[in-house]
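User: C-alpha cells for this one?
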Amino acid sequence: MRDDVIISYRGASYEIGRGPSFYGIWATGTMTPQPLEWWPDSPDGWYAAWSRFTAIEAPGTIAPVAESTPPAADTGSLTAAMEPLGRTLGHAPLAVVLLAAGVLCGIVGLFPDYLAGASLAQQPAELVPHAIYFAAWAASALLVGSGGARLRLGALLGLGLSIVTFGFFFADAGTAIAGGAHLMGAGLVLGLVGWLACAAGSTVAFTQSRVARARDGSQSSPAGAPGEVVGAPRRFEPLAFIALSLAALGTAAAFAPSWDSYVLRTSSGATESLTAGNVFSNPGPVIAGNLVVMIALVAVVVVAALWRPLLDRAALLAGAVIPMVAQAISAAVQVGEHTSPTMFGISPSAAAQAGLTVASGLTWAFWIYCAFLVALIATGASTLLAPGSLNPATSPPSASFPASSPGPWQPGVTPPPGFTSLGPAPPAAG
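Assistant:
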C-alpha cells in the first residue's frame, strides 16, 4: 500500500507525486510504495522529477489529481468547508461596491459640465476615452465579483488601469488649476471621485486576493517549487523584459509630440498649416499629469514583464494598455469632427466670406505612437500565447537552478529528511 505517497499528476503510463521526504515517479495504477525513480525533497529535486515525468509521459495525457476530502461529519468540519465561501462573501463585496460606485460616478459625470462649461457627452473625442475607462473598470468589477482566480485578474486589470489613468485625470484637473476654479464643472468632480473609488476598489481586491491565497495555504508558486510566492515577480525573462520595455518606452515617447494637424486652404489654393497637442505646450499642471501618464505606463509594463503567472501579467498589461488605446481612438474620432477656423485667428463668418476651409489630420508622431502601441500589445500577447505557456502539464519547467540527476529506487537508501506539501506543476518559460 502507498499510505505515505501523495500523487499530484497522472498520465497514461506514469504518475508523479511525493513520498516520505522525496519526489517520485510511479507506473500508473500500481500500489507499490517504491517509485520507479526518485529525487531529493528539494526545489532541484522537484524540477528534475517534473522534467523526467514530462519527458517519458505521452503528451496531452497529464492531468492534476484531485485531492480527496473526507465528508464533513460535524459542525466544525462544515464551518471549515464554508470558510473560503465566507471569506469571499465577506470581502469581495467591498471591492465590488467601490468599483461599481466609481463606475456609476463616472457615467453620471459624462453629462454635467466637465471643463469650461462643456460636458463630455458634448465632445465625442473626450467622451470615448472616458467611456472606455469606466467600461474596463466595470469588467474589473465583474471579474472581482466572480471570485477565485478571476478576483485576482480583475484586481490587476483595475490596478493597471487606475495607475495609468491617474495622470489623465490629474491633467484634466490641472487645466482647472491653471485656468481658474471656475473652469471645473460637476462632471470633472464626479470623474475624479469615480477614479478614486475604482482605484480603491482595485487595491482592496488585489489585497484580498493575496490574503485569500495565504489563508488557503496556496502560497506555493505555480512554478511548483515549494515556498515560492504567487503573484510576485519570480523569474527574469530577458527577451520578454527587453521587448515589452522598449515598446512601452516608444509608446510613452511618441505620446508627447503633437498628434493633430490642421491645414487652412483658401479659394486660390494657398495653404497654411499648424499642429496641436504637444504635451509640453500646456500649462505646468497639465504637463505634470501627462508626464505621470508616460512614467506610469512604462513602470506598469516593466513590472508586468517580470510578473508570473502569465495570466496575471496579461491582466496587468491590459490595464495599462487600455487607456493608451483609448487615446488613439480619441485622436481618430477628433479627425472626423468639425474644425473651427478660430484656430488660425479667423472668425467663422470671415472664413465663410473668404471661402476658407480647414482640414484636420494626424501627424507622423501619431502613427509612430500606434506602431509602438501595436508592438506592445503583440509582444504581450506573444508571451501569453507561446506554445505551452498556458499548459504547465506538457511544458518543461522553468528553473533558475540546475536540476538533480535522477536515480533508481534503492530499498536500502532513505531519501533526504524534510517534508513539505507538494506544489503544483511549473509553468513554461514565458
